[in-house]
Design goal:
With 158 residues, this protein is an alpha+beta fold. The protein has three helices and four strands, in the order H-H-H-E-E-E-E. Strands 1-2-3-4 form a four-stranded antiparallel β-sheet, with helices on one face. Strand 2 and strand 3 form a beta hairpin. The protein is elongated and about 75 Å long. The termini are far apart.
């Protein structure tokens, strides 16, 4: 197979090309599935390392691999936050937070902190043409809190 024949494809639920309607962001709680798989595999590997301790291929590396998989599994489980606030809710919360009527706005999903808590980063402009103000608001996607807010005059020459 040549390089021209190899094609990477996005999973169907992440491919927005040709999609009509409101795009639904995938929920971060999907991270729990691989976390459970990693933990299950860690238990199996640890059990094999104790049951077949006298086998030639079983050594301390099996226990270290089991430990590493368990750590990765716990990280995956604890970073699998269920998102309560979608992008529309984030846009509404940002509009309430900035204190001016919002014209154009966009929301981007980002992650915050060590445990990758999902957060919406919302950039919004005032309703005037050209906009006189702009704001950047970070909204927690788990509980809807406004984490940070920056509002300033729009210095862009439009």
């Amino acid at each position: 197979m040549s390089d021209d024949e190899v094609r990477d494809e996005l999973p169907v639920d992440l491919d927005a090309a040709g999609y009509v309607g409101a795009y639904q962001f995938p929920d971060n709680s999907r991270r729990r599935v691989p976390g459970i798989i990693y933990l299950t595999l860690a238990i199996v590997i640890l059990a094999v390392s104790y049951v077949a301790d006298d086998a030639v291929v079983v050594n301390d590396g099996w226990r270290w691999a089991s430990f590493a998989l368990a750590v990765i599994g716990v990280i995956s489980l604890t970073s699998g936050w269920r998102m309560v606030v979608d992008e529309r809710g984030a846009l509404v919360a940002a509009q309430q937070s900035v204190g001016f009527p919002v014209g154009h706005a966009s929301a981007q999903q980002v992650w915050h902190g060590v445990r990758s808590r999902p957060t919406w980063r919302v950039l919004c402009y005032s309703v005037e043409e050209p906009p006189l103000q702009r704001g950047l608001v970070l909204i927690d996607a788990v509980d809807g809190r406004v984490l940070e807010r920056l509002v300033e005059e729009n210095p862009e020459d439009l």
